[in-house]
Amino acid sequence: MQSRGNAGIPLTTSAPYGYKKAPEDKNHWIVDEPAAKVVRQIFQLSISGLGPTQIAKKLRSEGVMTPSEYFQSVGINCPTKPPAHPCNWSSGTVAGILDRQEYVGDTVNFRTCRQSFKQKKQLDRPQEDWKVFSDTHPAIIDRETFALVQNLRQHRRRPDRTGIVSMFSGFLYCADCGEKLYYASSKSSKQPQAYFFCSSYRKNSNVCSAHYIRESVVGQLVLEGLQRLFR
Fold first, then answer.
1. What is the DSSP-derived secondary structure letter of residue 49?
2. If exposure means fewest CB atoms within 10 Å of the residue's CB, which of 14, 162, 184, 227 is most exposed?
3. Which residue segment(s) compose the domain that 180 sits in?
């Protein structure tokens, strides 16, 4: 398997949703147009501003078959069982499609690994350990669109529990650990209070400290910076 992977031969047992194996060469993928049409739709919906959960909801409402249902309908064996309810797309399935570099025409090997032969669960490898071979099969998504979607998803501004979205969400990072600052707002008895806090500290208090900055302070700093810039 190591030699096959280093030679650029796909290590996946089946082609990704949107592709199918070429009849004359099982190691080569060709576009499966009915599924590829859905893949393109998912990327366009992401560009329009919808997140994976919203995209999944839209696909369900339109009665679009999930990848496992589609594979079953065309007679392709799929390790994933079809959902209990028809067309029941999940946000995880949508996110997985948006993350797949294979859609730009690349073969990506050694993306996952097992700690030992006794374990069935696959673990994600760091991206620097992947082996990427460019332009090995027809692209479904052009590279510019793929890059745009990755950037939008990385900086996607999500509302907090009150439904509020800050104009600074997705653009602030912790000065100590470099991780994103999360946005939160709360309604006190006097007035709403909004602030940003370190995402690392929230996940693991041993990684960073419990510091925060108010949204109003961020706004004032940005304003002062703009005033200095245009003087």
1. T
2. 227
3. 157-231
> Is the domain of 50 the same as that of 148?
yes
Same domain, 147 and 164: no
Q: Quick one: average pLDDT of 156-180?
A: 73
Last residue of a domain, one of 130, 154, 178: 154
User: What pLDDT score does 60 carry?
Assistant: 96
CA atoms within 13 A on the CB side of 100: 24
Q: Are residues 195 and 210 in the same domain?
A: yes
Name residue 20's beta-bridge partners: 30
Q: What residues have CB less than 8 Å from 95, skipping those under 6 apart?
A: 52
Q: How confident is the model at residue 104, as a pLDDT?
A: 96
Taking only the tens place, the pLDDT of each residue in 55-88 is 999 999 999 999 999 999 999 888 788 888 999 9
Per-residue pLDDT, 193: 76
